[in-house]
Design goal:
about 100 residues, F-box_dom, rod-shaped, mainly alpha, F-box-like_dom_sf, F-box only protein 28-like, three-stranded antiparallel β-sheet, FBXO28
Amino acid sequence: MAAVVERVDGCVGSLDPDAVSLRQTSSLQEQPHQNNPLLGLPIVAIETILNFLSYDEISMLRSVCKRMDMICQRVLNQGFLKVERYHSLCQRQVKAQLPR
């Protein structure tokens, strides 16, 4: 008889080398993020927390899980758009100062 093992990612597998199938447990699907209370917070709260980190630190957090990947991607994209708008503003100011 093979022992059933629950992995950290919520999949259940068997230690039997012949049985390679994995399935999600229904109890973990009903209670998402029970192991990490940070991920249970609303997205706006997590984004506020992430705004205190550098972009390198945020990009490293993307590998935590799919939800954190989505939230970090959103924060990184917002930062990129802010830089793009600032660059456009600076470029317009420089063009306005050039002689005609």
